[in-house]
Amino acid sequence: MAKTKTPAKPKAAKQKLAASAPSAPNIDIGIKETDRKKIADGLSAFQADAFTLYLKTHNFHWNVTGSMFNSLHLMFETQYTEQWAALDDVAERIRALGFNAPGSYREFAALTSIAEEPGLTDSADWREMVRQLVAANEAVCRTARKVLDVAAGADDAPTEDLMTQRLQTHEKYAWMLRSLLQ
């Protein structure tokens, strides 16, 4: 009976390389894990506020009535459409930092700083809708500033840039809405 050759052993260097390459490598983007966690936590709170504002804006788009119907219906649609796209950017930044983004109503409710207000009646005044949206946009701004401070301390320029863009947008929305009430 002929002897069968045993396969050659892989070179030691290849074994070492394979052993040091786990299926999910550690994240090394130049930001310490503890800082990435703080930033991701802040972004999660921001995401919850932004999603709550998105829902409120979309709700008011559907339910606005009165003399300002056409103007507000269009303004709310413009705002919630832009907000929806921005939610994805925030979630993707959380993921890039190595953490899961919140994505359920329960998570958003637990994380948001925007108080749930009673539902509006059938004849809700558009002014109350606008007042609520001003307050919610301002809350989103306050949360963004907190995240911006944490990101700046960790030298996280992408998160700083994202929060700066969101601040600019939500400050503008708050100003535009507030102007309707003056």
Secondary structure elements and their pairing?
Layout: H1 12-19, H2 33-63, H3 69-96, H4 105-111, H5 126-153, H6 157-180
Characterise this structure.
The chain has 182 residues and is mainly α. It has six helices and no strands. The protein is elongated and about 55 Å long. The longest helix has 31 residues, at 33-63. Helices cover 69% and strands 0% of the residues. Residues 9-24 have low confidence and may be disordered.
From the alpha carbons, calculate the radius of gyration and give it in angstroms: 24 Å
β-strand amount: under 5%
Distance between the termini: 99 Å
Alpha plus pi helix count? 6
Low-confidence stretches: 9-24
What is the string of helix and strand elements?
Answer: HHHHHH
What is the number of E strands? 0
What summary fits the major beta sheet? none
Helix content: 55-70%
Oligomer: single chain
The whole-number mean of residue pLDDT values reads 87
Secondary structure category: mainly alpha
Q: Shape from CA axes? A: elongated
Main features:
single chain; 182 residues; 69% helix
Provide a compact summary of the structure.
Helix content is about 70%, strand content about 0%. The chain is built from six helices and no strands.
